[in-house]
Specification:
356 residues; alpha+beta; eight-stranded mixed beta sheet; three-stranded antiparallel beta sheet; 8 helices; 20% strand
Length: 356
């Protein structure tokens, strides 16, 4: 099937669905199904009509220019319009191609953010805290809700690990390329000789899974409760409110102790567990389809990295797309759109090349 035939088929399908809804001859589940497909096709068809309309206008105008009966002024106007339309056509073609790319069903989901200190001791923990705060500021700038799930602090104000739920429009779509090892190069506050140290922290962004996305059987869970403990081992409270959940088939373990209520800790732990299992299933399906797998978080070693934050040079470099900026203060303050937009564009370009 040619590119043009595919576009024509989509427009025809959209018209058929619209006619069915207008006639009102469907109801119940069938109505919901048709309405959903119609709504999903509408923005795609709008782009297609803009593209096909421009191509038709070019043909009509070119015929006008060739017509001996067309006067000089009309020909000149037509030629100018043809030129303008041909200038717009590559962008319209790309818009159509992007609209036809398979959608990631997780893109519209909320996300679970997990940041962990990697190689580098106390400095890695401080950097993990900086990253966590960076994403919190970015979420605020996007108008998203950022809800801390748990934080395990180090002795000097850093984070051994931290988790948050981020909710809003297209959260996972915009944050999914942040998963990986982030490296920092700077002089630590504890460094007396002024030497630059290199440390690392890992970031994982998981699509938040609903119960309908992945079913977890009670028989597959081992749930332990124990007393919460804070830094230094002192008791946070005197009840067994902390919860550890092990998913026996996969060995995935989640622990939650920030809340004083055992029930609240269990709810939070289940939310994280469900999202981790959902992401595992997504990766499994992606591998089966021989799709390119997203960057993995890795071990946290400083040699594995997707992005480097070099404070002495004021530089931030994303190694996947060879993008470097010299605005580190703005980036760490949550100004991430330059990187995020570039990563999305790179992903789209790769997927378009696979369709060619």
């Amino acid at each position: 099937m040619s590119f043009e035939d595919k576009l024509e088929m989509l427009v025809r399908r959209h018209d058929e669905l619209g006619d069915s809804l207008a006639r009102g001859d469907v109801s119940g589940n069938e109505f919901s199904k048709i309405s959903k497909e119609y709504a999903e096709l509408t923005p795609i068809v709008d782009v297609i009509k803009e593209y096909t309309g421009a191509k038709k206008s070019i043909v009509d105008l070119e015929q006008m220019v060739k017509d001996p009966a067309c006067d000089t002024d009309m020909k000149k106007m037509a030629e100018e319009e043809i030129y303008d339309l041909k200038q717009k056509l590559p962008d319209l073609t790309r818009k159509v191609q992007l609209s036809l790319l398979p959608k990631d069903v997780a893109d519209e989901k909320n996300a679970i953010l997990e940041v962990r200190a990697g190689t580098g001791g106390d400095e890695a923990a401080l950097f993990a805290a900086d990253l966590f705060n960076m994403y919190q500021r970015y979420a605020q700038k996007q108008g998203w809700k950022f809800e801390v799930i748990s934080i395990s602090e180090s002795g000097i104000g850093g984070y051994k690990e931290a988790q948050a739920e981020i909710s809003g429009k297209s959260v996972f779509a915009r944050l999914k390329f942040e998963s990986g090892v982030h490296r920092v190069q700077r002089v630590p506050a504890t460094e007396t000789q002024g030497r630059i140290h290199t440390s690392a922290a890992t970031v994982a962004v998981l699509p938040e899974a609903e119960e309908v996305d992945i079913k977890i059987e009670d028989k597959d869970l081992r749930i332990d409760v124990f007393r919460s403990s804070g830094p230094g081992g002192q008791s946070v409270n005197t009840t067994d409110s902390a919860v550890r959940i092990v998913h026996i088939p996969t060995g995935v373990t989640v622990q939650q102790q920030d809340e004083k209520s055992q029930i609240k800790n269990k709810i939070k732990a289940m939310k994280v567990l469900r999202s981790r299992l959902y992401e595992m299933e997504r990766e499994k399906l992606a591998n089966e389809r021989a799709s390119s797998r997203k960057e993995q978080v890795g071990s946290g070693d400083r040699s594995e990295r997707i992005r480097t934050y070099n404070f002495p040079q004021g530089r931030v470099s994303d190694h996947r797309i060879n993008l470097t900026t010299y605005n580190i203060d703005q980036v760490t303050n949550g100004e991430l759109n330059e990187f995020i937009e570039a990563l999305i564009a790179d992903d789209q370009a790769k997927r378009l090349s696979e369709l060619a």
